[in-house]
Amino acid sequence: MPSNISVLLGRAKDVLQKEGLIPVLRRGSALVASQFFQYDNFYLYEHKLQERNEADFLPEIQDFTFKIISSNEEADKLAEAIGSDFRRRFVTARSRLDKGAIAFCIFVKGEIAHIGWVALSEEAHKAVDNLPYRVYFSNHEACTGATETIPEYRGKGLMAYGYFKRFQFLREKGIVVSRNAVAKSNIASQKAHAKFSPRVYAEAKHLRLLRWHFWKEKPLAQPVSHN
Q: Do 160 and 122 fall within a single domain?
């Protein structure tokens, strides 16, 4: 099993080859800083799951492969089959899979282009984003998070399609509500969510300093539009 250091070095090498030195340095400094201090403002979303037409959410890219991976064993087999391991790019992917989170991946030409996660338990929720908004798993709820599109594939509709596939999966599992948190600064994610007409039910502040966490939610009296 590869260590976190080897995974980090593998990802740095991939980013260096595809995006150059500056993105490597920028991401590296952000990663180091995030180990000590984090602060952000979020919108909290509630999606009531319903049947939708997949054709309405297809991305602009035609030649892609979609995969759902629910364990490291499945990820090992996929990596062997396609010759590329998405866990090399995403440092926490292995531990998330071990804790029950499910990865929804879109590949283009055998390389990962987009990833998003689903959590069906509190342990998986903490592995996906560690933000303490409430999800009532025993009441047929779930949550999504840790969504990322590789820079060269952004703006092509992969995020919206990835959410469609996650919501479709959850609905087929009998889940009635999906929740998640989106940073106020993340306009692209807000626009993708808007395609599904969610309820934005609260704002939240999150501060982490070393092991100390502060989280505060403020319910919204009026809906927030991200159209």
A: yes
65 and 109 part of one domain:
yes
Strand ranges across the sheet with 199-209: 65-69, 102-108, 111-119, 141-149, 177-183, 37-48, 199-209, 212-219
Question: Taking CA 171 as the corner, what is the angle to CA 44 and CA 100, rounded to the nearest 5 degrees?
Answer: 70
156 and 193, same structural domain? yes
Number of domains in the chain: 2
Instruction: Please give the structure tokens belonging to residue 142.
Output: 């779930």
pTM: 0.84
How far, rounded to the nearest angstrom, does the alpha carbon of residue 210 sit from its chain's CA centroid? 23
Interior CA angle at 107 toward 126 and 7, to 5°?
50
Q: What residues contact residue 159 under an 8 Å CB cut-off, 6+ apart?
A: 114, 116, 147, 149, 188, 189, 192
Q: The domain spanning residue 115 has which CATH number?
A: 3.40.630.30
Residue 101 has pLDDT above 90, yes or no: yes
Q: Is residue 225 part of a domain?
A: no
Residue 24 structural domain: 1-35
pLDDT in tens, 131-181: 999 999 999 999 999 999 999 999 999 999 999 999 999 999 999 999 999
Pick 37 or 60 by higher pLDDT: 60
56 shares a domain with 17 = no
